[in-house]
Recover the amino acids of this structure.
């Protein structure tokens, strides 16, 4: 029998050396399918800005977007931990804003936990949100909301100073009360060191396989999003191709008049029909 994943079962998994799986989802039907796969967590990522809303980055994503998609996902999930991203400027502005907005993601977006980007600089926010009883997942390394400060999508933590800063940030978010931390686009050996240093599970994306868990954007791993494919993405299926073919077949059948066929029709008695002529 599958059990509900929680911030507590995440910590227990690390203690037992069990790997954690997380995938993104943004809608009810996909969340239901992913939940049925036995995944540990579903992330309603602000990557929805890219893969669902078609923005170039995650900067324009709003609290209303996250609430709307979070609640849709939560309705489809039974066992996975539903983590909803705090969008750009919903927590950076103040500790007060962070707690109010994390609370909205729980109450209106039906999140089980929230995720926010940053290290020592956002620890007051992590402490306050966790203090309000809301599990917080941190996010270090390449943090897409800071893409303009990074000057593009680049691997993080490559210099000695940057690597040390990343380790210190990981320790800081743990001390502030985060129950888990995402490491994005970090050299595999550095991610291993962080994973061995902190007591909370590390969830990697482009951070090698020594992390305690992994996360991927589902459109990337299914080959449904081709605007940009990072090196760390593995295609587990080519659903994009399957969908394109199916859409094309549908158009051709409609044009040829072969769809709908008899088996897709509803009947009416001939007696009634005759009276209508
Ligand atoms: O928004 C997102 O999908 C994420 C993952 C890439 C970790 O933050």
């Amino acid at each position: 029998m599958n059990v509900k994943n929680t911030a507590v079962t995440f910590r227990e998994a690390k203690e037992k050396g069990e790997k954690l799986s997380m995938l993104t989802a943004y809608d009810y039907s996909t969340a239901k399918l992913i939940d049925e796969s036995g995944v540990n967590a579903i992330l309603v990522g602000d990557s929805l800005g890219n893969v669902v809303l078609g923005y170039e980055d995650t900067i324009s994503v709003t609290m209303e977007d996250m609430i709307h998609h979070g609640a849709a996902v939560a309705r489809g999930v039974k066992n996975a931990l539903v983590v909803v991203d705090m969008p750009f400027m919903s927590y950076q502005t103040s500790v007060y804003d962070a707690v109010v907005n994390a609370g909205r993601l729980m109450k209106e977006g039906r999140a089980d936990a929230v995720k926010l980007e940053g290290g020592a600089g956002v620890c007051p926010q992590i402490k306050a949100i966790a203090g309000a009883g809301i599990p917080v997942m941190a996010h270090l390394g390449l943090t897409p909301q800071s893409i303009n400060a990074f000057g593009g999508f680049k691997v993080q933590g490559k210099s000695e100073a940057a690597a040390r800063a990343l380790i210190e940030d990981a320790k800081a978010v743990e001390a502030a009360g985060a129950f888990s931390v995402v490491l994005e686009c970090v050299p595999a050996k550095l991610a291993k060191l962080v994973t061995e240093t902190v007591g909370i599970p590390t969830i990697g994306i482009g951070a090698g396989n020594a992390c305690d868990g992994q996360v991927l954007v589902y459109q990337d791993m299914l080959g449904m999003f081709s605007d940009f494919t990072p090196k760390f993405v593995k295609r587990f299926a080519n659903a994009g191709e399957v969908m394109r073919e199916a859409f094309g077949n549908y158009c051709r059948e409609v044009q040829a008049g072969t769809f709908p066929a008899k088996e897709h029709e509803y009947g009416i008695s001939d007696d009634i029909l005759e009276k209508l002529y």
User: Anything to note?
Assistant: Residues 243-274 form one domain. The beta strands are 20-24, 41-44, 81-85, 113-117, 136-141, 180-184, 202-205, 213-216. Residues 239-256 form the longest helix (18 residues). The CA atoms of residues 175 and 196 lie 15 Å apart.
